[in-house]
Amino acid sequence: MKKYFLSTTSLILLLFWPVHAQQLLTRTEAQTGDTRSNLPTITRLATVSETNYLNQLALKGFNLETQGLLIESLDSRTVYADLNSDIGFNPASVIKVATSFAAMATFGPEYHFETSFYTEGAINKKTRTLSGNLILQSTGDPVLGTLDVSRLVRDVVHSGITRVTGDLVLTGPFTYAGFSTTDRATQALFKTLKRSGLKINGKIVSGAPRGSRVTTHVSSSLRDILFYQNAHSVNQIADRLGEALGGPKAVERFLVKDVGISETDITISHCSGLDYNRITPRATVTLFRELVFWLNLNNLQPQDVLPVAGVDRGTLQRRFVGNEYRGAVIGKTGTLPGTDGGVSTLAGIMYTRDYGPVIFAIFNSKGSVATYRRLQDDFLKGFLAESGGTPDVNASLHRLNN
Fold first, then answer.
1. Range in 23-27, 106-110, 138-142 the model is least confident about
2. pLDDT in tens, 238-253
């Protein structure tokens, strides 16, 4: 995946920012003297906004060793800011972007999760007995709620079943409401069935979907689920989605195998970003870059799964709200006030007039979350102003209502 995505860099850049792409290519050719070279020239630019940001961190008494930063051009050939970019930091909820990417690559953005009950065997209408198994087919709907499960159970009872001679057969990952693992959710379902007057003589076993379908619940599209999850940073959805993917290690494997992130640059304990996860700023920028390319290849844009700062409801609604910043930043926040001494992160894509789209990752730890947020905003606002402001074409790229 990584090699294919990177081969499309020039194409994507030309699609988004034709003038800037031409300038970059011309500069690279002049420096290398060989337009056929496969090794891009990396340019490191010193920016006033980066200097001011680092000075402000130091003046407020924050240890720069506990801060991470990287801003790069979309084609990765220009570095605009860099601090400890190869050191692993706690990303907090920014890790939800990795979970989102893995889910879309696995299921597809328009995928709909289905949760269904099937019966295997004959139903005696007089005794209301199913002589066989009751089968739950689940694909791991991360937004399935208690009311949804209650309706499914009610439909089974209304179909004429109050007793099952066989087992409750589970197929696939299953979570709902606050039950974020398949085991916990299945045990809760078993109790719900019993409270609804449906007695199962057997036990809970795993199996394959078969028999006659009784009832089904279909979720909204994965794309819509991810947008809500990321805009509002809902831990429960992300952790349950991780369960459907196979757990945190499955997301790690996706990042290493498919995105091309080094094993030493990523550790995931929770797919929501809770507790002690680790990722480097460089790996985070790679993650967002590959996500942008993947979305483009699937006729989507970042704002389809990530909130636009100052526009969309959620954690970024009140940040970058001025007319000069509106729509310039698309990304994900991360906040863990009680972990690693206080963690605040911000990563995503920023659209600039002079430099085109840039990918950024800002990791702050061991300090005040509120202060870190103000410094992040001041830094990116300064960088945007230094980069010519928001491009005129920007307004047409972003979601302007909720």
1. 23-27
2. 999 999 999 999 999 9
Model confidence over 215-240: pLDDT tens digits? 999 999 999 999 999 999 999 999 99
The token duo for 20 is: 């800037």
**Position 27 in a domain:** yes
**Residue (of 341, 323, 344) closest to 333 by Cα position:** 344
Say how many C-beta atoms besides its own lie within 10 A of residue 221's C-beta.
14
| CATH number of the CATH domain containing 321 | 3.30.450.330
255 within a domain of the structure (yes/no)? no
- Return the amino acid letter for 21: A
- Cα–Cα distance, 383 to 363 (Å, whole number): 17
Instruction: Look at the chain and report how many structural domains it folds into.
Output: 2
Q: Are 197 and 162 in contact (CB under 8 A)?
A: yes
Q: Is 388 helix (H, G, I), strand (E, B) or coil?
A: coil
Distance CA 220, CA 19 (A): 39
- List the domain range (segments joined by +) for residue 358: 2-89+280-397
